[in-house]
């Protein structure tokens, strides 16, 4: 449920949106597979990157951890987008290009 709550926080820009438990549960129920895949891929990415970083003189662990966090954040955003579109909520849309 944490990725769904983080998605609500990012979309609304308010921490209160992450604590609307009913809406967060509705997001997870709309696409539970998206959140399971997010968790699995994030876990695999972290474990691989940290293992490789450990082998490369410990310094690579910090880089691997940061990159793993970016991967997890991207997957969380993608899962939120899928769930919000499926759940009847309005998905985030890219900004329209500025007219010249």
Describe the structure.
- This protein has 100 residues and is an all-alpha fold.
- The chain is built from 5 helices and no strands.
- Helix 3 (21-30) crosses helix 5 (59-86).
Helix fraction by DSSP (H/I, runs of at least 4) = over 70%
Which sequence of SSEs, written as H and E, runs from N to C? HHHHH
What would you report as the Rg, rounded to the nearest angstrom?
Answer: 16 Å
The chain-level mean pLDDT equals 84
Strand content: under 5%
Report the total helices. 5
- Tell me, briefly, the overall form: globular
Give the termini separation. Answer: 43 Å
- The total beta strand count reads 0
Number of domains: 1
Structural class: mainly alpha
**Major sheet, described briefly?**
none
Unreliable stretches (pLDDT < 50, length at least 5) are none
Task: Describe this structure in a few short sentences.
The protein contains five helices and no strands. The chain is mainly α and 100 residues long.
């Amino acid at each position: 449920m944490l990725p769904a709550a983080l998605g609500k926080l990012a979309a609304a820009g308010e921490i209160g949106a992450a604590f609307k438990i009913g809406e967060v549960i509705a997001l997870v129920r709309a696409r539970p597979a998206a959140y399971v895949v997010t968790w699995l891929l994030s876990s695999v990415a972290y474990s691989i990157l940290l293992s490789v970083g450990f082998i490369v003189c410990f310094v690579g662990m910090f880089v691997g951890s940061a990159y793993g966090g970016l991967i997890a954040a991207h997957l969380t955003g993608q899962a939120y987008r899928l769930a919000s579109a499926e759940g009847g909520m309005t998905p985030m849309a890219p900004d329209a290009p500025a007219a010249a």
